[in-house]
User: Fold this.
Amino acid sequence: MKKFVRPAIVAITCIMAVQATYAQTKQSPVIIQGALDIETDHIVSQLKNVKEKTYGAWKFWEGTYQGYPVVVSRTLMGMTDAAAATTLAIEHYHPAAIINQGTAGGHDPKLNVFDIILGKTSENIGAFITPNKALGEGSNTLTWNKSFNVLPKNNTPEEESRRLRFDADPKLLAAANAIKATYKQGKVVEGVIGSADVWNNELDRIKYFHENYGTSVEEMETASAAQVASLYHVPFIGIRVLSNNLTNNGSYNPNTGAACQQYVLDVAVNYLKSVK
Assistant:
């Protein structure tokens, strides 16, 4: 006769296992997110006492780095995957903070491959309302409007912009800035991370975002993860390294992913030290 395990018992067992993993540190972990293996493998290789977990299609690696608790989340690529992975991470691990990191394409001609952007702000650059045009009049993305510009005016500007634009947690930003001198492969600067399920290769389009949104880089996950974290009131920051920059002919370098991961690991430790 088969024995059936109640779902509630399974859930309690999982929670107890997570608690036991971090009992020695007496701290909640920092979640470090990356969409792809090239954005997570280096971090996982640096962890000790690693335990791998899978929830649906999303993988997590629990461990410690320099004695501090870290969970690596492979979010998969895109806004929806990142939002789902962030929800799972918060519900399962109750993290002290979340850092979304990885590679990105440059929007600012002053930035070079290997430079790191600390996302003082992350913004959804894929939400628009298009102008009215008749059949045959064509389409011009440079005339599209930010969707929150045409929302009802009974909301405050802060409420409207918060739907698409998210500020980094001040303590996480400070922890990242405090160690930027340790990064030797490029500059570390604050900037705006633009996120959307679009890969932009049109230089006029990239210039539009840089001039109208102030974007430093673009990628496909940070803003959606930031949105979920903000709804759960979990401290969040996005940190991205330029893997290429079309605006100044900076060609793609696959080694940028590992460089960013190591820096982010050190940011996580510095943050946990400050809140211990």
Remarks:
- The longest helix spans residues 256-275.
- The domain at 27-127+164-275 is CATH 3.40.50.1580 (Rossmann fold).
